[in-house]
From TrEMBL:
Signal peptide: none annotated. SUPFAM superfamilies: Acyl-CoA N-acyltransferases (Nat). Residues 16-187 form the N-acetyltransferase domain. This is GNAT family protein. Gene3D superfamilies: 3.40.630.30.
Length: 204
């Protein structure tokens, strides 16, 4: 079994600093976990939905870093460049270093919604993973009823692949269909210009 780890890293976008979590983030993380929209979209049995403050402290101080050290993933706190409260979270998890694939998860803090932060951060993390970390596929599974999350996936540039029907139990007592999106290295390359010959000798 191949075992690698992501390096500790800080990424920047036009409006965000994507950094490791610290214990100081715990109050904002805890508040986000209590938000009704967050709880409603979380899978049945998801341990962090409405988790208490000590759990948030542990998750921020050591939990996310342990996943990086274990080689199973990496998480980023979304910090607005101009200051202010934690805007959200983007995480790679379920990393398979043999096939070089990972799944992505994201959420936006209730007070930061409507600004496109999640899409901006998801695009940056996916690009970093596919280039600097040499992954070959980053994918998402999104409940088809979660329109906001679907918009994030599309705005971040992920390609729609299809729907896994009746995949997971939900809080309504039924089962949810999950839309699958992905990015691969080829998606990051600009399309070839059909007016530019591949070989200058072909120009006539």
């Amino acid at each position: 079994m191949v075992h690698e780890v992501f390096p500790p890293v800080v990424l920047t976008t036009a409006r965000l600093v994507l950094r490791p979590f610290t214990a100081a983030d715990a109050p904002d993380v805890h508040e986000a976990w209590q938000d009704e929209a967050y709880v409603r979209s979380a899978p049945v049995g998801y341990a962090l939905a409405r988790a208490d403050l000590p759990t948030a402290v542990n998750w921020c101080a050591t939990g996310m870093e342990q996943r990086r050290v274990d080689g199973t993933g990496i998480g980023f706190a979304l910090q607005p460049s101009d200051g202010g409260r934690l805007a959200g979270h983007v995480q790679l998890f379920g990393v398979d270093w043999t096939t070089r694939t990972a799944e992505m998860h994201y959420w936006t803090s209730p007070w930061a919604r409507g600004h496109g932060f999640a899409a901006e951060a998801a695009a940056a993390v996916a690009r970093w993973a596919l280039t600097e970390s040499r992954l070959e596929r980053v994918f998402l599974q999104v409940d088809t009823a979660n329109k906001a999350s679907l918009r994030v996936a599309e705005a971040a540039g992920f390609r729609f692949e299809g729907v896994l029907r009746n995949l997971v139990p939900n809080r309504a007592g039924t089962r949810s269909d999950m839309a699958v999106y992905s990015l691969i290295p080829a998606d990051l390359r600009p399309p070839a210009d059909p007016l530019t010959p591949a070989d200058p000798r072909d120009a006539g």
